[in-house]
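Researcher: Let's continue the batch. This sequence belongs to protein-glutamate methylesterase, and it's 191 residues. Same format as the previous ones, please.
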Amino acid sequence: MKTVQPIFIVGIGGSAGALNAYKVLLDAMPLDTGMAFVIISHMNPTAHSQLAKILQRHTKMSVTVAFEAMPILANHVYVIPTDSDLTMENYRFKVISPRISRNKQIDIFFISLASEIGVRAIGIILSGYNGDGTEGCRHIKANGGKTFVQDNSAEVDHMPISAQMAGCVDFVLPLKKIPAKLKKLAAALKT
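Model: Same format as before. Here are the structure tokens for protein-glutamate methylesterase:
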């Protein structure tokens, strides 16, 4: 199979209540978007995460736990390892373990994503408590990327509302409508 650099790298951040949101989003996502998806989920640092295995049941794309120097490829889904922060450089992951601080993993990845790929960065904030992801969305927008938040269907709306209140959100959508909007953004980038 030919390896292709993604059109966009889509960071997807969530916490409490986000598991169902990840499933719905991946169920609605086509196999061949030309994008890479990186799921940054708040997890207990001592947990043995089954997130990649669970999400693999909801997409035909390959779902893998990210590791150091792993290349970020189109039409793949990556999951943050437990007790780690994730950044990227030259379309490869950098893993910082143990994590730097509690519940800042989304901001850390989104800020790295924004600084590395600018207009090709997309951040999506799903269900969760407090404001992780808001600062990262600010960086994505400041570097020309696009930001989304889950609409009022979020089980816990603190994270989506925090980003909206900060004025750094381009789209507030139900999960099933996000894939079509991503496809339009990719088509616009190609023209």
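Researcher: Any comment?
Model: Helices lie at 18-28, 51-56, 105-117, 134-142, 158-165, 178-190.
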